[in-house]
Amino acid sequence: MLSWAILFFIIAIIAGVLGFGGIAGAASGIAQILFFIFLALLVISLVVNALRGKDPSV
């Protein structure tokens, strides 16, 4: 999911440089939403692993 966020971020940068403001805004919005979903899933995963007593690096 992080790779999708990075992809939309790159699309937003390219669209912004080329002057496509609407596309850049939409792509950056999608990238931001995906990034926060990724962070939420990461935190949930770390909490669940901590409650189970597993090492998160494994």
UniProtKB/TrEMBL annotation:
Q: Which domain of life is it from?
A: Bacteria
Pfam families hit by this protein:
DUF1328 (PF07043)
The UniProt keywords, alphabetically, are: Cell membrane, Kinase, Membrane, Transferase, Transmembrane, Transmembrane helix
> Mind telling me which residue stretches traverse the membrane in this protein?
6-26, 33-51
GO MF entry, a single one? kinase activity
Matches recorded under InterPro entries: DUF1328
Q: Name one GO cellular component term.
A: plasma membrane
Read off the NCBIfam families from this record. PRK13682.1-1, PRK13682.1-3, PRK13682.1-4
Q: Which family is it part of?
A: Belongs to the UPF0391 family.
Q: Name the chain's protein.
A: UPF0391 membrane protein GNIT_3517
